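Render this sequence as a predicted structure.
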Amino acid sequence: MLRVCTAVMFQVLGVYAVTCHAVAGDSDLAASLFSAVLHNHRDIEEMDVRFELEYVAMKPDSQLTLRTIKARIARGSKEQGLTLFARIAESQEFDSEDGNPTEHNVAAYVIGPRNQVQQVDAFGKKTANFPSKLIRNARIGIPDLETIGFVSFPHIAPLAGSDDPYWESLMVPSDESVAYPSTDGHAKVIQKHFHDDQFTGETIWRFDLTRLMPTQRRMYYRDANGKLQLKEIENYEWKLVNGVNVPKSIRCEVRQNYRNEETGELVGFSEIYTTEFNWKSVNTPISTNVFELEDLKTANDIKDIILPE
C-alpha cells in the first residue's frame, strides 16, 4: 500500500511539515498541500525581487516571436502601503525572410494603499486611481506572485490574488482533489475540473513533501472526442529565503493550435515561457527611497532601477 501523508500540519522554524501513514488517496492531504503553498506565499510581506522572462513561439508558418521582460517588484511594509513595479519589455517577430524592428516599452509605477498609481514612462509622469487591485494589475500588468504554482506565470487576470474565494476553496478538502504520495518523498495531486456537472479536464501537480512546494504542474483539457489533451506544463525551482520558499526559476510550455489560412488545417505549436528570479530581500525593511519616482526622467533612469546592481 502507498505511504500517504495526512493533513496534520505544523510549523517549525517557518517550515510546514506533515506526518505520514499508509492509506489510499487523500483529499485532506491535497487540501493541506494547497494550504501550505498559499500560506507560504502569504508569508511574504516585504520583498524586493527582479526577474527576467523570455517568451519564444514558433508558429507553423515559420514566424518566430521573441519577447523579453525585465522587471522589478518591491513591496514595502503594511505601514508603508507602497509597491514599486518597473519593467522593460522588448518584442520582435521574424518571418521566413527577415525580422521586424524590436518594440520597446519602459515604465515604472508606484502603487499606494488606496490603489492610486504614479506612473513614469516615455510620455512623462501620470497619476491615476483604480477601483480595485484586479483592475489595477490588469491595466499595469503586475504579475501576481501569490498564485505561483497554481496558474502559469506571469498571472495577471482575471483572479485578484490568493485572497480570492477560489484559492480559499482549495484549502477545504474536496473529492475533486486527491493526493497520492510515493515512496520517493513526492506526492501527485490530481484535481478534476467540472462545468455544469460535466467533466472538462484535470490538473496534476508533483509536490516535494520535504519542501511542501510543487515542482511541476500539468493541465489537461477534455477535447470534443472525450480525450484528455495536455494544455500546459510548468516546472518550478524554489529557494529558501528568511524561512519562506520563493521561486528561483519557472519554465512553462503552453500548447496552442494554429489554423493554416490556405489549407484550413489545424496545426499545433508551443509557447515557451522561461523566468529567472533574483531575490534581493524577503521580509526585511525596504527604504522609502525605493518608492520615489522624482529622479526618474528618462528610460535609462528606469532601466537603472531594474537591472541588477
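Summary. The first helix runs from residue 27 to 42. Residues 118 and 127 are 5 Å apart (CA to CA).
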